[in-house]
Amino acid sequence: QVQLVESGGGSVQAGGSLRLSCAASGYTYSYYCMAWFRQTPGKRREWVASIDSYGNPDYANSAKGRFSISKDSAKNILYLQMNSLKPEDTATYYCAADPGRGLKDREDEFAYWGQGTQVTVSS
C-alpha cells in the first residue's frame, strides 16, 4: 500500500520561503513520477511541479523561477522548496505519485495522493 505523507506547511509572510516534504512508503515501482499540486476552496487542483525517476523536473509557469522540486531517493522523500512566496500561493498542497518513466502533469494521471498540507501566505 503506497502512502504519501506531506509536512512542512505553515504560515509565512509574502516574500518568505517554505520547504514542503512528502515521505513515501510502500512504493515498489522501479520508475515513477512524483509531483506537487495545490488547491484552493472551490477550485480544481492545480499542478505545480513534477519530477521523474531520473530527477528531471518540470514546473508550472506560476512556479518557474521561485519553486524547486527535488527528491532524496535513498530516503524516499520528495521536496518542494518555495521561495519568494506570494499571497496567491496560499493553498493546500498535495503530493502525488504514479508509476512510469515520463513526466506527468495532469491530476488524473496520478494514482496515489497524500492528505495535503496547508500553506498560507499573508501580505
How would you characterize the overall build of this protein?
- There is one protein chain.
- The protein is an all-beta fold and 123 residues long.
- It is 0% helix and 51% strand.
- It has no helices and 11 strands.
- Strands 2, 4, 5, 6, 9, 10 and 11 form a 7-stranded mixed sheet that branches.
Largest sheet: 7 strands, mixed
Mean pLDDT: 96
Low-confidence stretches: none
What does the overall shape look like?
globular
Briefly characterize the structure:
The chain is mainly β and 123 residues long. The chain has strands spanning 3-7, 10-13, 18-25, 32-39, 46-51, 57-59, 67-72, 77-82, 91-99, 112-113, 117-122.
How is the topology of this model organized?
Elements: E1 3-7, E2 10-13, E3 18-25, E4 32-39, E5 46-51, E6 57-59, E7 67-72, E8 77-82, E9 91-99, E10 112-113, E11 117-122
Parallel strand pairs: 2-11
Antiparallel strand pairs: 1-3, 3-8, 4-5, 4-9, 5-6, 7-8, 9-10, 9-11
Top keywords for this entry?
123 residues, mainly beta, 0% helix
